[in-house]
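tool_call: predict_structure(chain=1)
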Amino acid sequence: MSTCPSDGLAPAGAVPAVEAAVPSIDDLLAATRRRAELSARLNAELAGSLNVRRVVMRLLNLLVPERGDGFADWAMVAMADEVKGVVQLHGGLEPGPVTNVALDPHLHPALGRVMLSGHTETLQVSHDPQIDDGVDTLIPDATLCEQARTLRPAEVLACPLSARGHSVGALLLVRGNSGGFPQEDIDFAEQVAARFALALDSARLYEDRARVAAAVERSLRPAALPMMPHVQFAATFRPAAEHLQIGGDFYDVHASEEDCVAVLGDVCGKGIDAAVLTGRARQSIRTAVLFDRQPGRVLSTLNTVLYEQGSDRFVTAVCARVRPGEGGGLSIDLAVAGHPPPLVLRADGTIEEVQVWGRLAGVLADLDYDEVTVDLAPGDTLLLFSDGIFEARGRDDVYGMGRLAGVMRSYAGAGPDALCEAIEQDVVEFLAGHAHDDMTMLAMSPRG
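tool_result:
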């Protein structure tokens, strides 16, 4: 890049040039060696983090180390924040706080010009405090500007930060009483700015994507279970990719004053792709429940939505409409779309598999789903679960329905919370660290 004069920043002839001594061969060799060492350290430091704040601080600490004898006496990074419409200022004598300022093109034309033009500019800071040297047009903060002026007479070097075809900000360096920046140091500063801009842009891109992923993850996590006067719920959710906290399994409970509709489903596949379809399935069910709360019709609507979208993936689900029953119990209407039938754990330890079935959703058009009704007495528990529970594979065997039933019998009458927790712990111990599919359970009992 070419170095452009800062036109209009100071009156012509008002700032005397800093007389620089002619460097000796030893001085030139030493300066070259320092630049090479700094370049190597910059490569290592800037490549070691994808955190924006950390990348900025590492650069500032290398350019202006606490021990002195740095490349500059003072440094600042001006970073454009397009979302907030401000410029973030990092650096100064105490580079901890971050200052956010609105960049006014009339008050700060020099900084705006550097950021937008892609050209480096230099500015002489007068030794005379009475002379308007125009530093404030480069440094849009009174405190930081005064810090730079304390080094007078000095020279300010402003390098643009551009990466992947757009402006990221600007790097400002100040040298006081040191003869300013020779051309070799300006060229080196531009190289540093180019490397830093790329590292900064990569870190910002990573953080932006991380924020998007976190927002998607929050939207896909199961909602909190409602508190109902006649029913007690409990659930567990352990995704296959545990670091994501999202997967292909889902559950929801849609409550009203008269009843609640509970759904547990399993989307074909794992990870992000399955999670996207999970969100679509949950939204379809949520909308369907607003118009018809019968489980069979809810699943029929889900099937129609998925089929008409033309996806090559399918969804299995079990839907339960829960209402108060006789004697403090519950009356539950159930429908299933290709999903393992629920299990009923009676208070005396008897286990019953609900006799209900239906085709999985999203493959065939115009499907109807039959319903069955299950009555729960006080002390009974209904368990909905995904196939990741009984298909969990340990060292030599599959967990299986027999082991699941055995654990359930041991917790007859204990309630939904204790039952789900005991099953999850037993499955995890059985896995012994092996990979697993998404594992989800939703249990309900009459509230005592």
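agent: Residues 135 and 366 are 72 Å apart (CA to CA). Proceeding to next step.
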